[in-house]
């Protein structure tokens, strides 16, 4: 082979290798939006998934739209879990009996006393299998149980991994975790 042909091949090889470095790597994790569903009579005043905040949830409610974001792997793998933390108001309609007028000293005292009854929870929760990462749906269930999905399926669709009634009642006693 001629020296010119060898140089051309050599330059082509070097150019090809250098161009490979220009392609960005595919992400391993992405931020996914968070939605919540309360299936109980309690209000979920705030919650987070892996530190990313979720919306407030009314009793028996779907709440607040999507918030950003929970960091999750692009590909689901066995043993995948998330940390869900939440603050629950077990008596969300108590304010109807608070002293009037609103924001008076007596009303503010009642609000502080009520807030002291909020409960705080933390759970490490398995994530249902997903083919493609999508919205993180967090279901708050009786007995401070939580179920999490993170795929493209939405509640009520045939392939959604869970079916929970909108209104679930707390049992008289909850099983020990």
Task: Chart the SSEs and their pairings.
Blueprint: H1 3-20, E1 29-38, E2 43-49, E3 52-54, E4 62-73, E5 81-89, H2 105-115, E6 119-126, E7 136-141, E8 145-149
Parallel strand pairs: 1-7
Antiparallel strand pairs: 1-4, 2-3, 2-5, 5-6, 7-8
Q: Which term fits the overall shape?
A: elongated
What is the CA–CA distance across the termini? 75 Å
Determine the oligomeric state from the structure. Answer: single chain
Helix percentage range: 10-25%
User: Strand fraction band?
Assistant: 25-35%
Q: Major sheet: order of its strands?
A: 4-1-7-8
**Please, how many helices?**
2
The class by helix and strand makeup works out as alpha+beta
Radius of gyration: 25 Å
Average residue pLDDT: 86
Unreliable stretches, pLDDT < 50, 5 or more residues?
none
Q: What string gives the helices and strands in order?
A: HEEEEEHEEE
Major sheet size, sense and barrel closure: 4 strands, mixed
